[in-house]
User: Fold this.
Amino acid sequence: MNLKVLLGVALTCMVTGISAEEIIIEMKNVGAEGAMVFEPAVVKAEVGDTVTFVPTDMGHNSELVAGLAPQGADSWKGELGQPVSVTLKKEGVYVYQCLPHTIMAMVGVLVAGQPTNLDVIMKDSAPLKAKFVMNKERLDNYLQQSK
Assistant:
């Protein structure tokens, strides 16, 4: 293989974002922070990274909470007990939940790049937090960690 071809392949890999990461988040009945958790619960990633939610226990899903993401971000809603992947295309903070366990504050936070919309998320998260019966401070703690 000649030098020109080798340089062309290297340049193509850099331009197409082949260096993007895949991040795994587990959906668990019991984890380091208690019952009904995503682990890790707060993830700092880059735009272009792919996040895959993997159920290690049955009865969980991952879905984006409407209104708690960067404007124009792609939504997702995984099926119960099934993995779901999402590629982060917009910079900012994304809040997601396990719908059956929202009352137990089974939520998590993704930050793609900089947390440019954190103030809006903190202000607009009150309706979600009002659904929590337990672990009421969990989302606030996660949002503080995302700074």
Observations:
- The CA atoms of residues 49 and 145 lie 20 Å apart.
- The radius of gyration is 17 Å.
- Strands lie at 22-31, 34-39, 42-45, 50-55, 63-64, 84-87, 92-97, 107-112.
- Residues 3-15 form the longest helix (13 residues).
